[in-house]
Amino acid sequence: MTGPESAREELLDALRAVREAIDIPHPATVGDGETYDRILKERVLHVVVMLQNIVPGDGSRCAADVIPWSVEYLRARLAEHPAGGYKTWAEHAAELERDRQAKGGAQ
Length: 107
Hints:
The protein is mainly α. The chain has four helices and no strands.
């Protein structure tokens, strides 16, 4: 793939990487929210670095190899800062459902 189609795919991959960075599971509690906020902030900072490389502030065009390199950079940083270490809302809801079922089902 070359030309405009390749550039389109590279930009879509960049958008996918941004979504991977910021679309993390919602926290279950206020305490979990503090950890969530810290993780999300760190991940957003890396997204900003990637976007600054792809979309220069002076309006100039980025070099051809900048997008794939920047996406790889972002994904490497995301691997260093996984979205974990807190209880998610989905995990909390699953625990509540298990507790409900253990107590005899719907009440």
